[in-house]
Amino acid sequence: MSIKILHNPRCSKSRETLAFLENQGQEIEIELYLQKAYSLAELQQLAQQLGVADVREMMRVNDELYRTLGLANTELSQTELLQAIVENPALLERPIVINGDQARIARPLEQILAIL
Question: Broadest EC class (predicted)?
Answer without folding.
Answer: oxidoreductase
